[in-house]
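(Deposited chain)
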Amino acid sequence: MRKKHLLIFFLFLLSKPLISQDTSFMAKIKIPPVIDTLFIDHDRNNWSIRLFTNYKDNKFKLSNTDHSVLYTPHNPFGFGFGLGTRKVLLDIAFNIKVKDKEPTERFDLQATLMLNNHQLNFTIQRYQGFNVNDGSVDEFRTDITSLSSGLVYMYMFNTSEYSMAAIKSGLSKQKKSAFTSGLGGFIFMNRISADSSIIPPELYHLFNEEARIVNLPGIGAGGLVNLSATVPFFKNFFATAKVNTGIGLMYKYVETETVSYHPTDPLLYQLDLGVILGYNANRYYINFSMGYTLFGTSLGYNNRMTYNTAKAKLALGYKLGRNRK
């Protein structure tokens, strides 16, 4: 909770001069030139704030040729607030826990930095507590923890006619259909750990000893290709879709109850799909977005790990600038 309090305090300090009528307040704050150039937008017309409710299911799957086990967190729903400029998008979510289910302890943070054609996305997630299910076994394990973070860089073409960041922050309207593409790269880090094998003893006969994982750290990097399109319709409505796909290399280390080893196959596959349906008026905007992200890699010995994130968000935003046209 201490991290969340610091973030809220930071956002308050950052947004106070924008809401205030004293536009010279920002100029009185001594900010390092690099931070000021990269993160701060001094034009209040380029700021928006929003409230949102979201769904996020960050699960993973361990499989071999004949069988698989799915690890799913509980309480996927949440709510939160965010702010956006033409340079930065930042959302902070708070999880909703259901009383009749064992809760998954979650921490999620997502931020986006935009500089002309350059786009940088950062995420960090820590989940503790997963439901283990293979169709016959169904149990909740509080000792299983997943810690992951990712960094995605994309150089976007045709940004004069198409800006995904402006669409998400509600700062601009798309007046005609537009298509764009991008080239970039990603870094993906993940660690899965548990007090005992993540494969339940009842399923030992379906997996080899190398699948009885108690610790699995890994770090990977690769290249990405992006295709995006947006189509406006009626007066203020629009629809947007994107596809990111890529391939890279991943360093992995597997510790089990009896052995430890480095998988020999380093390949890492990535797929990212997203759609947005939105309404953008002069002072308000509504965005409904859905996305799916997949990372897949081999652990050797006929075992494979996939990381899946399915998410949806409904956001209601307000544009701070008073002279917006």
Notes: The radius of gyration is 22 Å. The chain has one domain: 2-319.
